[in-house]
Automatic annotation (TrEMBL):
UniProt keyword annotations, A-Z: Signal
Domain Tail specific protease: 224-409
Entries under Pfam families matching the protein: Peptidase_S41, Peptidase_S41_N
InterPro entries: ClpP/crotonase-like_dom_sf (IPR029045), Tail-specific_protease (IPR005151)
GO BP field: proteolysis
Protein name: Tail specific protease domain-containing protein
Phylogenetic placement of the source organism: Bacteria, Pseudomonadati, Gemmatimonadota, environmental samples
Amino acid sequence: MNIHRILRWGALAFLAAAPLQAQTTLPDTPAGRQAGALLSAVRDAREDAVRAFIGERTTGKFREIPVATHVQQFQRMGAMIGSAPVAAVRAPSAAALEVDFQGERGMLTLRMQLEDAPPHRITGLALGRGEAPAAGPLTDAGRAAVVDSAASLLKRYYVTPDTAEIIGARLRERLRAGTYAAMDRATFARTLTADIRAVHPDQHLSVSTARQTQGPRPAAAAPGSGQYRYLADARILPGNVGYLKMSSFPGGQEAMNELAAALRTMERTEAMIIDVRESRGGSAHLANFLISHFTAPNLLSLATFQPVSGDTALRRTLPEVPGPRRLDVPLYVLVDRGSRSAAEDVPFVLRNLGRATLVGERTAGAGRNNRFFPLGEGLDISISVTRVWDPCTGAEWERVGIEPDIAAADALDAALRAPRRAPAALPQAQCRAR
């Protein structure tokens, strides 16, 4: 089966051995028992359950990833798998297992790789879809099911429940009026997105074909920076100024390792420029990882609220970082209207903490955390599930964006011409989280 990968950890290297005959229950084998434990942790997805699973049942590579990242991934897996029954189980080798789940929104396949020897810990995981069920044209019944699924998911997960009700009613009204009749998938997805945003212009609300929603991808390397896989560019400019270009914020330990290594090559520069222009965002964990290299440890940086769980959380800068922690270097962040989501997190927090001067244009104003959910019929929906704000002031950048300190069409030139002084870090003694 061709797998459309949605989530992946570790390394997968399945052997080409003939698979065992497919079955619909997990086998009483090391791989089957690990799969059962994984499904229990995924359907629980509390931090203590995830932490215990990662600590006891996976290899060291998994434990290098922040627990908060695992919790998010487990929650996403749980939302995708839900209570779907096992449709088939295959064992390509003694150290590998594939599990198919047949849900109302299509087939999902979990792939797992284990150590060859006891205790048979997990070395690789991936969850993906089979080939998108988009072979034939959409039917009226299919469109109606998608609208119903979108309305239901929005009602359950959207950060503003009252707004979700209004959006759902609008989509159903448009369906009854025949607006979506005869549309192909791409047109249907674009029209649903437009209808949703006509009610509420949240940039994290969108519908797309399932093959588009693969999460953050490595940034395309700029000319002359071919040694980087995840960074668009990292080099020292004339005048001994470090320049770091982030076209996206990929998740995972490899991206963190590469970013730390790049920062080490620039630890003796006289100033630093972080360029997040035209960056589509990505992992909030990588954003905080970058921020923490230029701020003191354990500073309050963001507050978040999830309506589904009712949980409010406070994010702090990391207590330790692998790269250089540069608290005094003059720091400039280049922004424009293409800076979105995690690419707004970085300038928002660095300026609020008194560590950076922002140069360029107002940012996009995509200030919430989102998750992707399958709608069926080869479509996915992105839903804002978390509100984000400054814990000290209550300010947020959703819909309003972030204004630069220095407005400039050529942000890089303006930053290079700016006075070389480091902003005074703001004291947090009077901060009372809101």
